Structures are given as structure tokens and as C-alpha cells.
UniProtKB/TrEMBL annotation:
Keywords: DNA-binding, Transcription, Transcription regulation
Basic and acidic residues: compositionally biased ranges: 74-84
BP GO annotations: negative regulation of DNA-templated transcription
HTH tetR-type domain location: 84-144
Gene Ontology MF annotations: DNA-binding transcription factor activity; transcription cis-regulatory region binding
The protein's name in its UniProt record: AcrR family transcriptional regulator
The entry's DNA-binding region: 107-126
Keyword Transcription regulation applies: yes
SMART domains per the UniProt record, alphabetical: HTH_GNTR (SM00345)
UniProt cross-references to PROSITE patterns, sorted A to Z: HTH_GNTR, HTH_TETR_2
Occurrences of domain HTH gntR-type (ranges): 2-70
Residues covered by region (Disordered): 62-85
Length: 297
């Protein structure tokens, strides 16, 4: 009997060989495979790695895993390619994998398979996995330069917060890759912190740092909700609105049983809340800034 990862790989291989999936087509992500085949993330990852080793698929930056051999494999002759790499290529491949399948699917072995090199060769360019992730964060943040920072403190803080939100929306793995308790030294992220520090010159130093940490934690926290919701939707095929609709009857029972009068008033008259994370982000940011304004008076 074939192992589960082999069953998945065989099915995807069949789709490629029959033309159901053509060169350049995106293949199901690991999250989609977890949902469709009812397997663990590691199993789905191994299935894609099997096809990558066969040069049937590769990770394409900004797209996901697609049909066809990796570009490096197409343009070089067979044999070792360990010396024919660049740090940027390794980082961009890592970002492509994380964008497609999440940070959990990222490994040095998978990147090596994508690039057609030995795993050990990668360490000469990016060090270990932690160093690679830090460089991925730096590259992802670098896609969103601040530009000219406004003089007004509120506009400056808003610019930084919205810039981070945009980066988190494009790269869903980014929020979980950034640490607030042990922050990585990310060159392209430091100017963002500096911009907020300059905007908060009216605060004492301790309050300014506390404000920066709170601001970054707020934006990152909402982004983590976005990441988990995207994964839940891929795993279940159910949107957040559909999930909420399915919970309506059970919620009504719990409200009645607990005599939760405020909940009952909230849901009266068919009230329907639009759970939009962009709107929630802006609402929370306004509250945060209003609180800062009160402190500055």
C-alpha cells in the first residue's frame, strides 16, 4: 500500500501528465492538499517535495507552486549548481514558498530542492533557517518603502501602521515571522521604528518605546487573525461569513440559556455585523491614535 504522500503525488502527477494541469498552472497548495486529502501538513509538504525532486513543479515568487521545472534547472546543465547561486535568489525562493504554503512549509531542504542544489550549499549564502527568515522579512518589508514621512505626528504614525498592514496582507506569513519580544535586527524595518520615534518626541523615552511596541503589536495582532482566517478557509472551504451563519442557531441557544441580555439586544432586529478586517484595522487604529492624542494634550 502506498504512503499517503505518494498517493497525493501520484494524483498530481496524473493531472500533469494528462494535461489537466499545464506548464505554468498553479498546483494545489499544501493547505489545500491538507483540506482535500485529509492529511497532515507534513504529508502534503512531502508530496510536493516529491514532485519538486522530479522537476515536475517549482515555487514561483508571488504565485505559488506551479507546473514545470525550476528556471535554474532549465537554464543550467545537469550537475552540481552549488556555486551558481545568489543570496537574493535563495531569499526570494523562500518567500515564494512561504507565500504559497505558509511559513510552516519552509525548510532549507525544500529551498534546495527548488533551486537544484545541495542543502548544505544554502548555508554559505544565508546561514541557518532563522537567518534566512530574517532576510525574508527584510526583503518583504523592503517592498513597502515609507517614502516621505509627514511632519504631523498622527499622519506619520498612520503611514507606518498602514504600510505594515499592506505588507502583512501581501505576505500572510510575515506577521508570525516577526518577533516583538526578541525583535530581529531587520535593516529595512528600522527606519519605520525611527519614523514613529520622531513622531513621538513629545513623549518621554519610556512612553515612546511602549507606544511603538503597542502599535506594532496591534497591527501584527490583526494580521495574525488574517493569516489564521486564510488558513481556516483553505482548510475547510468555509468563509468567515459562512462559518458565522452556521453558528447563529447555537449562539441563540447559549444567549437564552445564559440570560445574556446585552447579546440579545445586540442581535435584535436582524443586526448583521460586517466582519471586514480592513475596516476593523482602521477602526482600531483610530482608537489607538485618539488615545495617543489624549496623552499628548
Amino acid at each position: 500500500m502506498s504512503a499517503p504522500y505518494q498517493v497525493i503525488a501520484a494524483e498530481l502527477r496524473r493531472r500533469i501528465e494528462t494535461g489537466e494541469l499545464r506548464p505554468g498552472d498553479r498546483v494545489p497548495s499544501t493547505r489545500a492538499l491538507v483540506r482535500d486529502f485529509g492529511v497532515a501538513m507534513a504529508t502534503a509538504t512531502k508530496a510536493l517535495q516529491t514532485l519538486q525532486q522530479e522537476r515536475l513543479v517549482h515555487a514561483a515568487p508571488g504565485v505559488g507552486t506551479v507546473v514545470g521545472p525550476p528556471p535554474r534547472a532549465r537554464r543550467t546543465e545537469a550537475g552540481s549548481r552549488d556555486g551558481d547561486l545568489s543570496q537574493d535568489e535563495v531569499v526570494r525562493t523562500g518567500i515564494a514558498i512561504a507565500d504559497s504554503d505558509g511559513l510552516a512549509a519552509l525548510s532549507m531542504r525544500r529551498i534546495a530542492t527548488e533551486l537544484g542544489v545541495s542543502t548544505m550549499a544554502l548555508y554559505r549564502y544565508v546561514g541557518g533557517k532563522d537567518a534566512l527568515v530574517a532576510r525574508m522579512v527584510d526583503a518583504a518589508i523592503g517592498e513597502f518603502p515609507l517614502g516621505e514621512v509627514p511632519e504631523d505626528w498622527r499622519d506619520a504614525v498612520t503611514l507606518v501602521a498602514r504600510t505594515h498592514w499592506a505588507a502583512y496582507k501581501k505576505h500572510l506569513w510575515l506577521a508570525s515571522a516577526i518577533s516583538l519580544s526578541r525583535p530581529q535586527l531587520v535593516p529595512r524595518l528600522l527606519p519605520h521604528t525611527d519614523a514613529v520615534l520622531r513622531a513621538l518626541r513629545g513623549f518621554d523615552k519610556g512612553a515612546a518605546l511602549s507606544t511603538i511596541i503597542s502599535l506594532f503589536a496591534y497591527v501584527r495582532g490583526i494580521a495574525l487573525v488574517m493569516e489564521s482566517e486564510a488558513q481556516a478557509e483553505q482548510d475547510t472551504g468555509v468563509t468567515a461569513d459562512e462559518w458565522a451563519t452556521h453558528q447563529t442557531d447555537q449562539l441563540a441557544v447559549l444567549i437564552a440559556a445564559g440570560n445574556l441580555t446585552a447579546f440579545r439586544e445586540l442581535l435584535a432586529d436582524g443586526f448583521d455585523f460586517d466582519y471586514d478586517l480592513d475596516q476593523l484595522f482602521e477602526f482600531g487604529l483610530d482608537i489607538f491614535l485618539d488615545g495617543l492624542a489624549a496623552r499628548l494634550r
